[in-house]
Structures are given as structure tokens and as C-alpha cells.
């Protein structure tokens, strides 16, 4: 299983948006330059984040983006779903019904009415992961990062965003 780099870009960018002064929008170009990532790709990610209500476009000539909700309300799972979509990771195609020893025209109930045990286990595992990712928010991430990086580095990031004209 692998999430796209878009998930990482989105999570980091949402975190970096918290370095901007209150009430100030942040441009895609600023976020891309600050993080050394593709502006074009990040723009596509932000379109998805906007469509799902995580960020909102700021009006005006300079535009940019702002969080649409408090960082404590944006879960990791919200971001993953916005970027990757909401379909299950495991897609059961019921290959058990293709077993060579079965009459495909007269499958027993255990192959048609009972859920596939592999599917059951995989979907349960996905739900456990979703539950964990729903318990982590951008606000939680901000607080954890503040505890782990040097204060000078945190202040330098805030100053970098303060110095950008919007």
C-alpha cells in the first residue's frame, strides 16, 4: 500500500500555512518555494483540498488559500480522502468463485452469500487505519512539530511567511 506524494505535499503544506500571520492567505507559489516542491502539482492538490472544504480560496488580486476550518478539525484522514479519493484500498473481485473444482453455474451459498474472509480481514484493517488517521489532526501535528524542532527554526519559518507580500 502506498499513498501518493500528494498526501505528503498536502499535509506539509497545511502545516506550513499555520506559519502565516493570522488572516493572511498563502499562495501556492509561496508554499512550493518554501518546501522545494512542484508548484504545478501542489496547485492540483489544493484544488482537491478546496473542493472538499479543507481550504478556501482567498478573494482578491493576490488570492491564495486559507484554511476553511480550524486545524484541530482537519484530520489526516480528511486530507488523504481529499487527495486520494474514498474508495477502499482492497478491491475484492471474488476470485474464490473461479475455483477450478466449482460448478460456476451452481455455486454453493458459502461462495455467494457469505462474505469473503480475506475481504473481511482487509476491510477491517483499513477501518483500523482510518480510525487512527482520524484521531490525528493538523492541530495535533503543529503541536508535535513545535515540541520537536528548534525554536529558531520555527521562528524562521514564521518570519519567511511574514515577509511575503499578500
UniProtKB/TrEMBL annotation:
Record SUPFAM superfamilies: Winged helix' DNA-binding domain
A Pfam family annotated for this UniProt entry: Rrf2
UniProt GO molecular function: DNA-binding transcription factor activity
A cellular component term, taken from the record's GO annotations: cytosol
InterPro entries tied to this protein: TR_Rrf2-type_CS, Tscrpt_reg_Rrf2, WH-like_DNA-bd_sf, WH_DNA-bd_sf
Name this polypeptide is given: Rrf2 family transcriptional regulator
